[in-house]
Amino acid sequence: TGTGPLLDATGIRVAYGDLVAVWEVSLRLHAGSITALVGRNGAGKTTLINGLCGLLPVKAGTVLLDGRDVTALPAWSRVALGLTVVQEGKRVFRELTVRDNLVLGLRGGGVKRADREDELARLYERFPILGECRRQRAADLSGGQQQMLAIATALATKPRVLLVDEPSSGLAPVFVDLVFEALSALRDEGLAILLVEQLVDEVLGGIAEEVIVLERGRVALRDRAANLAVEDVAASIYSSL
Ligand code: ATP
């Protein structure tokens, strides 16, 4: 705890059998900061995120969460320690109500039963859309509402580090704005956020402080967003085509 990075990953390698998809990638995430992870399809962004959060085992490297080595821990115990992922594709429990999805998040984060209603009220306040449909099945929500629910469920676990995989994918522009507003607010509250995002304009136009371009499983470019031009990032992403 202190001024060091909240998440400090060094030399992360992730493979599917013999196919190495992420080669010795290192990155640090700081409190109150959004780092964007960009790169073309197949560059290894999702694989890296899954290695960081424990959904995939790493073949090499170390993941430190606030100084503590969590590399060998399963995903659920990383969640309990404050490292939570919002997976690609608006993953929610479709047959459960909005409220019950959120309760699962609260339980995953170790929130006490006695605090449950207060925490739910806070989540509904932050996401009024979810408050309005708290009794509906997640399956009956729109795609944008489901993505808000996925983010809210992750928040319910009380993370300090949030990994978010392509939250804007397939959403109407109004929901893309809502998602980015929500992530900016969380950053302002001190979360360290890693955001996989295809919308390079949005990433450089304000939401991210730092940008990492991944190419064939390696870091091709890394800089503060303010130092990068959209054309440079786009060129770096598409040069490998
Ligand atoms: P996208 O934007 O399409 O999600 P990405 O940058 O997230 O792309 P990954 O999905 O991490 O890229 O894929 C990285 C590499 O790993 C690709 O070559 C992909 O084909 C391969 N890969 C991904 N998932 C698997 C899997 N389950 N089994 C085998 N190979 C996989």
Automatic annotation (TrEMBL):
<keyword id="KW-0547">Nucleotide-binding</keyword>
<dbReference type="GO" id="GO:0005524">
    <property type="term" value="F:ATP binding"/>
</dbReference>
<dbReference type="InterPro" id="IPR003439">
    <property type="entry name" value="ABC_transporter-like_ATP-bd"/>
</dbReference>
<dbReference type="InterPro" id="IPR027417">
    <property type="entry name" value="P-loop_NTPase"/>
</dbReference>
<comment type="similarity">
    <text>Belongs to the ABC transporter superfamily.</text>
</comment>
<dbReference type="GO" id="GO:0015658">
    <property type="term" value="F:branched-chain amino acid transmembrane transporter activity"/>
</dbReference>
<feature type="domain" description="ABC transporter">
    <location>
        <begin position="7"/>
        <end position="241"/>
    </location>
</feature>
<keyword id="KW-0029">Amino-acid transport</keyword>
<dbReference type="InterPro" id="IPR017871">
    <property type="entry name" value="ABC_transporter-like_CS"/>
</dbReference>
<keyword id="KW-0067">ATP-binding</keyword>
<dbReference type="Pfam" id="PF00005">
    <property type="entry name" value="ABC_tran"/>
</dbReference>
<dbReference type="InterPro" id="IPR052156">
    <property type="entry name" value="BCAA_Transport_ATP-bd_LivF"/>
</dbReference>
<keyword id="KW-0813">Transport</keyword>
<dbReference type="GO" id="GO:0015807">
    <property type="term" value="P:L-amino acid transport"/>
</dbReference>
<dbReference type="GO" id="GO:0016887">
    <property type="term" value="F:ATP hydrolysis activity"/>
</dbReference>
<dbReference type="InterPro" id="IPR003593">
    <property type="entry name" value="AAA+_ATPase"/>
</dbReference>
<protein>
    <submittedName>
        <fullName>ABC transporter ATP-binding protein</fullName>
    </submittedName>
</protein>
